[in-house]
Each structure stands twice: as C-alpha cells, then as structure tokens.
Amino acid sequence: MAQFTTEVFQNEFLPDGGTDVHAIVRVTCSGAGKAGIGGGTGGGEAAEILIVDTSGSMGANGIMQGRYAATVALNEITDGTWFAIIAGNHVGTLVYPAFGATQMVRMDPRTRQEAIASIQQFRADGGTAMGTWLTKAKEVFLTVPHVVQRHAILLTDGTNEHETPDQLTWAIQGATGFFQCDVRGLGDRWQIDEARRIASALLGTVDLIPSPERMADEFEKLIRASMARGVASVDLRVWAPQGAQVLFVKQVAPNLEDITAKRSQVNPLTAAFPTGAWADETRDYHVAVRLPAKSLGQEQLASRVQLVVRDEVQAQALVKATWSNDEALTTRIDDQVARYTGQAELAAAIQDGLAAKAAGDDAGATRKLGRAVQIATATGDEEMTSRLKKVVEIDNAEAGTVRLRKSVEKLDEMALDTASTKTRRIKK
Description:
The chain is an alpha+beta fold. It has helices at residues 59-76, 109-118, 130-141, 165-175, 192-201, 215-227, 327-330, 335-358, 362-378, 382-388, 410-419; strands at residues 3-10, 13-14, 20-30, 46-53, 82-88, 92-96, 105-106, 149-156, 180-186, 206-209, 231-239, 245-253, 257-258, 264-267, 270-278, 281-290, 299-309, 312-323, 392-396, 401-404. It folds into three domains: 3-37 and 231-332, Immunoglobulin-like, CATH 2.60.40.3670; 46-227, von Willebrand factor, type A domain (Rossmann fold, 3-Layer(aba) Sandwich); 336-419, Four Helix Bundle (Hemerythrin (Met), subunit A) (Up-down Bundle), CATH 1.20.120. It is built from eleven helices and 20 strands. Strands 4, 5, 6, 7, 8, 9 and 10 form a seven-stranded mixed β-sheet that branches. Strands 2-18-17-11-15-14 form a six-stranded mixed β-sheet, with no helix packed on it. It has a five-stranded antiparallel β-sheet with strand order 1-3-16-12-13, covered by helices on one side. α1 links the parallel β4 (46-53) and β5 (82-88). The two termini are 27 Å apart. Residues 47-231 form the VWFA domain. This is VWA domain-containing protein.
C-alpha cells in the first residue's frame, strides 16, 4: 500500500498589513510498487510507447544507436505492460505491433523478441513533425482505454520543420492530460524550447543526450524510472479560504515546473493540480497564497494542501498565517523558501541569458548570465557555476561580473539550459 507523508517549511508570521504566504510542501511517497501493479493505491494497468526519431538527420550511426537504445528499453519493460513502438519523421508510423494490429500488445518473451526484430525497420529518412508523433501515440494509447498509466519516451535530433507551430500546439493540447512524456534531444541540432513545451505540458522531463552512444543508457534509465511508478495519477489539491487567492503552485524539486496553469476547479475554494505518476520518491512544491490582511495577533489557516488519488485523500499539509508586530519574526525568511526562490530565479536568468545571446543581444546576455553566476555563487551551487564557466569568463562571481566567451561549444550551452531546471534539495 502506497503511503504519502508531508512536511511544511514556511515562516507563518506576517507583518501588519501583510498578505502573501509562501510555503514549501514536501511530499514523500513510499510503497508505490511497480507500474501496472501499484502498491494498492492508485494502481492499474500500465502502457509504454517508445517514439524514436528516424528522420534523415539521424544518419546511419544515429539509427544504429537508436535501434540499440530501443532494444535496451524493451528489455526493461516489465512483462504484462502494454507497449508499442513508433518511428517518427514527417509522419508518425506504428512499427510494432505490426501494421493492421487492433491494439497495443502486452510485453512477454515472444512480443519482446518480435518488437526487437521490428526495430530493424528503422531507416534514416524524411523530415521532422513531432506533432504527428504525439497524435499517433495518443491513437495507439486509445486502443487500450482501460489502462490508467500511460507513458512515452520521445527522442528527437532535430527541429520541428515539417509542420506549423500551430499544428504542434494542437497535438500537444490533444495529448495533455492523456499520457506523460519524457523528451530527450540528441546532439546539438534540436530546439530545447520545442522539447520543453512538450515535456512541460505532458508532465515529463527534458534533457540532452550529447552523442548517439549515450542513448541506450538514457533509455534504460527512463524506462526503469517509469516502471517504478506504481501510483498512476496523483493530484495536489489546494484549498484557500474565502477571499484568498492562490498565486501559484510550482514543483521546485527535483525539477522546476510551474503547474499553476494546469489547475482544475474542484469546488469554489479548492483547485486540483496534476502531478502525474509516482514512485518511491520525494517532491517539493512551492505554494503561494494571498490573504486579506487581518489584525495583529490573529491567526488563519492560509491553505490546506492534500494529496489525492482517485478522489481519496492520502495526506495533507496545513499552511498557516499569523499577523505579528514582532519584526524578528516577520522578517525571518525560511531557508527552504529562499533556496527554491533563488533556484527559480537562477533558471530564468540562465534561459533568458542564453536566449539573448542567441538573438545577438550581448549586453542582455552578459547581464542575465552574470546574475546567474551571482546566484549560483551565493547558494554554493558549484555544479551550475562550473557549467556557467563554459559559457562566460567570470571576473567577479560575488558581483556577477562576467564576459561572454568568444568561442563556446553549442553542446555546452544546451547542457547549461537543460540543467537549469534541475534543482538540488537542501536538508531541513
């Protein structure tokens, strides 16, 4: 039986006239079980689709490594899991089960070997239209409507050149809320913004695979993670009192993801935010609520945050507010809130700085990336500082004084961009 527990980190004390309450809600799941089995909580059958880019830009080596990566992934999919394979170029093509199949098939020794044989069909040919891949994946998932947990891996090495931005948007919207999708970009010719749009909408992650030889390791890691998610779908429900406003809800660990726009209204005072499937893991969420100011000495429940699986509450956390004239209390900043606020600013500074650099705005890029160096230094984020050093020369880290490097590897810029949304949790 899966169990959820919560911790709250906040400074509940507000000054006279104060309105905004910020809290980090840490959620831990244990006993999740395995995908398709579950831990007795929110379990149900699982389905997995591999979407492999087979456009012309993949080339012979990319296709060879893609075949190998897909083979490794297939060996990690648990027997009994529904699965399929899609080849993607200017169209999405179902490779396995064979053309004419009426539905996905369950993994077993026979279907695994058939699938491994089918990926020998991969050929580098055609363009890139990722929207068609997502649409095909949804069509395939629809053949097993009883499945409650649907996950896909999408690999691409290029830009979405063979469909319009609107077509990609429609495909993403059609898939949103229907299946989760992790996106991986191979090499340095794909667009992070495109991949991030897909992953963000579909509750997945985006990352860089620097070379074809690294694909197999990444596919293995992703499938193992997917197979470990035994709780199919969890909602974060946030209640706020009459007259209050939920400013935002953001996942801040292990990755930064603003889920505010994904809200659905449960009742006039409660909104639900989807968090996808869970394994045995811990995630942190930043919840911000604006309250009407109250008199000094008054206390109020600012928010009730609940973990809900199939409309059943598994755990809850209480966010409180107390108005005080004690400056020592009201000016204290909770370490957890401060750290994650800083990491969100760091991610924005990196992404904005790289975007400015790509647009030829060297002054803007220098300013933004300098601020990123300043934040990384102040928070002791040595890993991010090391990545930033590959893009800028640092004159004064504390002041954020930097110069753009004249020669920068594209892969180093992309690695910095994709790493910007990965956070490092701090201890209580």
